[in-house]
Design brief:
Length: about 60
């Protein structure tokens, strides 16, 4: 199975979540300026404090 197929398959959900988090971290940490993070779904209320902590130097619009 191709890598993308493995990543999108329902198997190993915990591993998929960890890879997604790692990719998100790398994407955000490599940006020099002008980083924009857009969520296409609503952010849970209990996750909003993390967004303010992680992106403290920028503006967060819930």
């Amino acid at each position: 199975m191709a890598l993308v197929g493995k990543m999108l398959a329902g198997h190993d959900l915990d591993k998929r979540l960890e890879r997604s988090r790692n990719l998100f971290y790398v994407s955000c940490s490599r940006a020099r300026r002008g980083l924009a993070v857009v969520f296409l779904t609503d952010i849970r209320e209990d996750a909003l404090p993390n967004t303010h902590d992680w992106f403290a130097s920028g503006t967060v619009h819930p």
